[in-house]
Design goal:
Largest sheet: 7 strands, mixed
CATH superfamily of the largest domain: Vaccinia Virus protein VP39
CATH architecture of the largest domain: 3-Layer(aba) Sandwich
Distance between the termini: 58 Å
Number of helices: 16
Number of domains: 2
Structural class: alpha/beta
Low-confidence stretches: none
Helix content: 40-55%
Strand order of the largest sheet: 5-4-3-6-7-11-10
Radius of gyration: 21 Å
Shape: globular
Length: about 325
């Protein structure tokens, strides 16, 4: 049955329900429990210590949303979507859900305040900026870094194949957190070397993470504030989901700091979701547009069009050279003049 405009309008009004159902399943690790095979609500109840009747209603809600399948015998299994909420599977969305839904949900409750005043919903909900929350809350910092690593997982292959790194190149991962992106690139090319630079809170798990991927001998870890300095001498400066965190003034400062560290001819690679110049209801437009709104509410940053990135690069004495569209990502390249 084809949904009517009224059906679609009702769905939009009630979108909050889906997020909270996903949160419930992820926090209870139900997708992981179902990885061993079909389970009934009673079996899931025993494993989660949640009332079976209420749990069945959660499961049926997510079944209607395509996350689970309810079989004739009353047992449930994961769909392909449900599998993506398991821990540790390729492309897992569990870290993203664990980071975004609890904190962002509260921030979005202040959306109208942000729209009217420009003050971020996160600051209004949590009494400080996202970065202040990370600095004072080790649990949230860990969940944030895990989510960023999850985002990087999807970008690694795209950047590794699109970046055309020369043999022996030194890649500086600016604001790289755990180092998931540069580690993935190093693993794809044994001749490459890397540096992960970030604030101390972002680097707490980085040495152990790099060692676990057997790239610690080719990748150093440097504490740095990218508003002040980044390591010099790199052949490529990589910024994934960094520029979109900031308004134009702060973004320009970050790029200028990178430019000061770069020799003439060194390259900069910006990995972001690039906004279309004109938005339609094309499904490919939804993710960058929604991420743009997330940046407004969470950080006061924004996504940008390709032309806007070209303008930012030029302002930092970086010449735009190339852009590569990808599945959910865009790679914008520049060279130091």
């Amino acid at each position: 049955m084809t949904p009517t405009p009224a059906d679609r309008a009702y769905e939009l009004v009630n979108g909050f329900r889906a997020s909270q159902l996903v949160r419930g399943a992820v926090e209870l690790r139900i997708p992981d429990l179902l990885s061993g095979g079909a389970m009934s609500a009673d079996q899931l109840s025993a494993a989660t210590r949640i009332d079976a009747g209420r749990l069945r209603r959660l499961m049926r809600g997510l079944t209607a949303l395509g996350v689970f399948i309810e079989h004739d015998d009353g047992r449930f299994t994961n769909t392909e979507v449900g599998e993506l909420f398991r821990e540790g599977v390729p492309g897992s969305q569990r870290p993203v859900a664990m980071m975004l839904i609890p904190e962002s949900y509260r921030g979005w409750d202040h959306f109208m305040d942000t729209l009217r005043s420009g003050v971020t919903g996160h600051s209004l909900a949590h009494g400080g900026t996202l970065w202040e929350t990370i600095a004072r809350d080790p649990d949230y910092a860990a969940r944030f870094n895990q989510a960023m690593a999850s985002f990087s997982e999807g970008a690694v292959q795209f950047v590794a194949t699109s970046g055309h790194f020369r043999d022996g190149a030194l890649i500086v991962d600016v604001g790289g957190g755990k180092g998931a992106l540069v580690a993935g690139i190093l693993r794809s090319n044994p001749s490459l070397r890397g540096i992960v630079c970030d604030l101390a809170a972002g680097l707490a798990e980085t040495p152990q993470y790099l060692a676990g991927l057997d790239v610690a001998d080719r990748c150093s870890v440097v504490e740095a504030d990218f508003f002040k300095s980044v390591p010099s001498g790199g052949d490529v400066y990589l910024l994934k989901q960094i520029i979109h965190d900031w308004d134009d003034q702060h973004a320009a400062t970050i790029l200028s700091v990178c430019r000061r560290a770069m020799s003439a001819g060194a390259r900069i690679m910006i990995v972001e979701r690039v906004l279309p110049s004109r938005v339609t209801d094309d499904p490919s437009h939804l993710n960058p547009v929604m991420t743009d709104l997330q940046m407004m509410v969470q950080l006061g940053g924004r996504e940008r069009t390709l032309e806007e990135y070209k303008h930012l690069l030029a302002g930092a004495s970086l010449s735009f050279t190339n852009s590569v569209p990808g599945a959910g990502w865009g790679l914008i390249e520049g060279v130091a003049l």
